[in-house]
Write a structure and sequence with these properties.
alpha+beta; single chain; 102 residues; 12% strand
Length: 102
């Protein structure tokens, strides 16, 4: 399967157990927040779900290591407090994103 996609396989070095920590963390988070709660029909459905989740993960989900900002947030913009907050459902309501409403 990997050779069909021209994917290069890199083996983890014996003395570096944390070499793949970022990928393993993303897989764990995607499983616990997304795919463990959805019945997946086929590969096409799984790819669509993971595409939606990856978009949510990079644009709408707060990350502790980034001071509760999403990776795609602009660090130079300070959001003003809003009296109205709008909720946007992601993946059919499995996840929610909250934004300030004008």
């Amino acid at each position: 399967m990997f050779t069909a996609n021209n994917t290069q396989i890199l083996k983890t070095a014996p003395q570096t157990p944390r070499m793949n920590a970022y990928a393993e963390r993303w897989v764990r988070t995607a499983r616990s927040e997304c795919t463990d709660n959805i019945l997946v029909y086929d590969e096409r459905h799984l790819r669509r779900i993971l595409d939606h989740y990856a978009t949510h993960y990079n644009t709408g989900r707060a990350h502790r290591s980034l001071d509760l900002h999403a990776p795609a947030d602009d660090r130079n913009v300070i959001p003003l407090p809003s009296h109205h907050i709008r909720r946007q459902k992601v993946l059919g309501g499995l996840l929610n994103e909250y934004h300030s409403a004008a």
